[in-house]
Automatic annotation (TrEMBL):
One of its GO terms (biological process) is protein transport. PANTHER family: MEMBRANE FUSION PROTEIN (MFP) FAMILY PROTEIN (PTHR30386:SF27), MEMBRANE FUSION SUBUNIT OF EMRAB-TOLC MULTIDRUG EFFLUX PUMP (PTHR30386). This is Membrane fusion protein (MFP) family protein. Its main location: membrane. It comes from Qipengyuania algicida.
C-alpha cells in the first residue's frame, strides 16, 4: 500500500508540474524560434489534415455507392401535339367546284349537319343530266334487244320500255325494234326462197327421172321385137337404128334428171344451212347487243349515282358538333380543288390525346402501356410541370417526316385535361405542341457515365 501511495503521489506531482510548465511556457512566437525537436513537442501537428483525408475518403465511398446503386430513368423523346381522341374532321369537297356561298367563319361553333359551304351546282347538275340520258339510252337499247331476241326464240315480240320513258320515245324505240326484226326475217326469207326453189327443182328432176326410168323397159322391149323382125326382114333397118337412138336418148335424159335431182338436193342442204346460220347469227348478234347494252346500262347507272352524289355534296355540312378552324376559303366564286381540305372541325368535348412521333431508333423499346411525361411548349415544364399519361397505341408502319425521317405515330392517353397555372386550372386545347418523354427503362448512373467511353472503345480502331 505504501508503495502504491508513493507511486500515486509521484504521478500526481508530475502531472501538476507539467501543467504548470505549460502555463508558464513560451508564447507562440517564442516557440517558433525553438529547435525543431522542441517545437514539435511544444506545438503538436494540427489534426485538420487527418480529418480532411478521412472526409475525402468517405466522400469517395459515397460517390462510388451512388454511382453503383443510383438509377436514372431512360426516356425516349417524341415530339407531337394534342388532338381530340375522336380526331379532327377534315371538310373537303369530293370534286372541284366554284364557291357559291360561305356560311361559317373561322372560330364559329357549328352543330352536326349544319351547312358550311355551298358550291355552284351547275356543272354537277349538267353531268347528272348527261349521265341520266346515257343510262336511258343504254336501257332502251337493252329493251329493243330483248324484244327482238324474244321473237327469234319463238316467244313473240314484246317490247317493254324502261320506267319513266316518254311515250313518244317508247313508240319510236318499238318501231326500231320491229324494223330490226323485219330486216332479220327478210334476210332469212331470202335463204328460205332459195331452199324452196331447190326443193321444187329436185322434185321436178325426180319426176322426170322416174318417168324416164319407167319408159326405158318399154323401149327395150320394142327394140328387141323390132330387132327380131329385122332379122326376118319384116322391118327396115333404119327403124331399128332410130329406136336404138331413142333408147339411148331416154337413158341419157334419165341420168341427167338424176344428176339435177342430186344437185338440187345439195342446193337444198346449203339453203337449209344458210337459213339456220342466218337465224343463229342474228340470235348471236342480238344476244351480244343485249349483253353490251346491259353492261353499258350498269356503267351508266354507276355514273349517274356518282353524278347525283356530286350534286348532293355541293352543300358541305358539318359531320359533328364542334368549332370551325383553318378556314381556307374566303372568296365567293373562288375555285376549290377536289379532296383538298377547306376547313377543319374540332369536335366538342371528348378527351384529348397526344399524337407523337417516335423516332426510328427508339421504336424498338417503346411499348403500349409505358408511362409518359408530356412537356407542353405553351407551359414550361420547369415551372408548371408535365402532363402524365401512358402509351395507348403505336402504328404498325413508319411514315416519312421531312425533319425527322422515318417515324412511327403513337397515341398517348393523358391522365389530366388541365394544368395548374398560377393557382388556377387551365384546360388543355387541341393543337398544343410538346415533347413526350416515354419512360422505356432504368439504368445505373455508372453505366450512363461509362456508356460513351464504351461506345468509343467498341468503335475505335476500325476506321478505314
Amino acid at each position: 500500500m505504501n508503495a502504491l501511495a508513493r507511486y500515486w503521489d509521484a504521478t500526481r506531482i508530475a502531472l501538476a508540474q507539467d501543467k504548470a510548465r505549460k502555463r508558464s511556457w513560451l508564447g507562440c512566437d517564442e516557440v517558433t524560434f525553438l529547435p525543431a525537436a522542441l517545437e514539435v513537442i511544444e506545438r503538436p501537428v494540427s489534426p485538420t489534415g487527418r480529418i480532411t483525408t478521412w472526409l475525402l475518403l468517405f466522400g469517395l465511398l459515397l460517390t462510388l455507392a451512388w454511382l453503383t446503386f443510383g438509377r436514372l430513368d431512360v426516356v425516349a423523346s417524341a415530339p407531337g401535339k394534342l388532338i381530340p381522341a375522336q380526331n379532327v374532321k377534315l371538310i373537303q369537297p369530293p370534286e372541284a367546284g366554284v364557291v357559291r356561298e360561305i356560311l361559317v367563319r373561322d372560330g364559329q361553333h357549328v352543330k352536326a349537319g349544319q351547312p358550311l359551304v355551298e358550291l355552284d351546282p351547275t356543272a354537277s347538275k349538267a353531268n347528272s343530266e348527261q349521265a341520266r340520258k346515257a343510262l336511258e339510252s343504254a336501257e332502251l337499247d337493252a329493251a329493243r334487244a330483248r324484244a327482238v331476241l324474244s321473237a327469234l326464240n319463238g316467244k313473240g315480240f314484246h317490247f317493254t320500255a324502261p320506267v319513266g320513258t316518254a311515250l313518244d320515245i317508247a313508240a319510236l324505240q318499238e318501231q326500231l325494234a320491229e324494223a330490226q326484226l323485219a330486216d332479220i326475217r327478210a334476210s332469212a326469207a331470202g335463204h328460205s326462197a332459195e331452199l324452196n326453189a331447190a326443193t321444187a327443182s329436185r322434185s321436178e328432176a325426180q319426176v322426170e327421172a322416174t318417168k324416164l326410168t319407167e319408159t326405158l323397159p318399154l323401149l327395150d322391149e320394142q327394140l328387141d321385137a323390132n330387132e327380131k323382125l329385122l332379122s326376118r326382114g319384116f322391118v327396115p333397118k333404119l327403124k331399128v337404128i332410130e329406136m336404138r337412138r331413142q333408147r339411148m336418148a331416154a337413158s341419157r335424159d334419165r341420168d341427167a334428171a338424176l344428176e339435177r335431182a342430186k344437185q338440187a338436193a345439195a342446193q337444198m342442204a346449203r339453203a337449209r344451212t344458210a337459213v339456220m346460220a342466218s337465224r343463229e347469227q342474228a340470235r348471236v348478234q342480238i344476244m351480244g347487243d343485249l349483253a353490251k347494252a346491259e353492261n353499258e346500262a350498269r356503267m351508266r347507272h354507276d355514273d349517274l349515282a356518282k353524278a347525283l352524289n356530286a350534286v348532293a355534296h355541293q352543300r358541305l355540312v358539318s359531320p359533328v358538333s364542334g368549332t370551325v378552324t383553318q378556314l381556307a376559303v374566303h372568296t365567293i366564286g373562288g375555285v376549290v380543288e377536289a379532296t383538298k381540305p377547306i376547313m377543319v372541325i374540332v369536335p366538342d368535348g371528348g378527351p384529348l390525346v397526344a399524337d407523337v412521333m417516335v423516332l426510328n431508333k427508339d421504336i424498338g423499346f417503346v411499348r403500349p402501356g409505358q408511362a409518359v411525361a408530356l412537356k407542353l411548349d405553351a407551359f414550361p415544364f420547369t415551372q408548371y410541370g408535365t402532363v402524365h399519361g401512358r402509351i395507348e397505341s403505336i402504328s404498325s408502319d413508319a411514315v416519312e417526316n421531312d425533319k425527322l425521317g422515318l417515324v412511327y405515330s403513337a397515341r398517348v392517353h393523358l391522365d389530366d385535361r388541365a394544368l395548374s397555372i398560377d393557382g388556377r386550372l387551365t384546360q388543355l386545347a387541341p393543337g398544343m405542341s410538346g415533347v413526350a418523354d416515354i419512360r422505356i427503362g432504368r439504368r445505373t448512373i455508372a453505366s450512363y457515365i461509362v456508356s460513351p467511353l464504351s461506345k468509343v472503345g467498341k468503335e475505335s480502331g476500325r476506321e478505314k
